[in-house]
Amino acid sequence: xxxxxxxxxxxxxxxxxxxxxxxxxxxxxxxxxxxxxxxxxxxxxxxxxxxxxxxxxxxxxxxxxxxxxxxxxxxxxxxxxxxxxxxxxxxxxxxxxxxxxxxxxxxxxxxxxxxxxxxxx
Length: 121
Description:
By secondary structure, this protein is mainly alpha-helical.
């Protein structure tokens, strides 16, 4: 019985993943609206923790510099993602990595999109 439940759980997860990717690819306006709504709700719920989380991320990243993507020039981020190997985006594509996508992420009402500058402090 547990094997059957495990299989059903995996199939349900695969179905949810397929639906999410279909929505993202077929209805980007809906995907962006849901993403923005989630960010706003997250910010409302966890606003009191965001500063602490960001400080902890910065501390844990030492000796590298960890900054919010809102603090970085858009063209620097676009160039960085453009230089990545194409197969990187096979599994990781929650959003686009073009200039308009980066600008949208930079304007989101939360600060958990962090980026590590490659240079050491």
